[in-house]
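Troubleshooting: if your tokenizer reports a length mismatch, compare your output against this known-good record of 266 residues.
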Amino acid sequence: MPSRTSPLSGRKALVTGSTSGIGLGIAEALARAGADIVINGLGNPEEIEATRAGLAERHGVRVAFVGANLMQADGVGTLIHDAEAALGSIDILVNNAGIQLVAPIESFPPEKWDAILALNLSAAFHAIRLAFAGMKSRRFGRIINIASAHGLVASPFKSAYVAAKHGLIGLTKVVALEGAELGITANAICPGYVLTPLVERQIDEQAAAHGISREDVVRNVLLAAQPNKTFATVDEIGELTAFLAGPFGGSITGAAYAVDGGWTAH
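Known-good structure output:
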């Protein structure tokens, strides 16, 4: 039985979109719990290497980086192959990579629709499809899909993102049913707004564009739908992921966890 201080010791985890933001917070939490990690994502190679090395040094686990184009099935195939080669297996798969575009439905660029569905939904499907057999053979797997509050409710001008995140929750439920007798769980986490460097930039941009204070942007624009008027943190998302991946998450499957300050309670 893994220790309470290192509940994921001996486990191997792949986290997509994990070179910054929510994904990096998840990788940090899994490494802190003792898992070896493959990170994946975009960024400056030197910064990515510093991130990789820092995770390994802080937590005393193996950390590898695998870059791949997740917009295409063969790119996801490369990611899974290289991740398994780096770690030996994938016990924990976290599908976090995603992109967003806001536009009215009548002028939503079709190529952007295709790209958002490809990364936010199809990449998760291909990763699960390719990792599932190994999990089945070992009678253990934890699949955690980072969806969104927009997987549970809609907002205008986000047709592709909302469609993809609703689809991701549906995919999660199907995989949970297929893995139920195989030791494989599948769950979705549905954050509202999370305070990341990207969101910090959005606050400053919105304040400048509308001539209002940062506080007004946060309370009345970004967090208008969140009753608690408080951003979630990457640590909160990371720790929930680590719990679902751990020894006490074995009976939790097919669920979608809202981490949204009450947004979807409306």
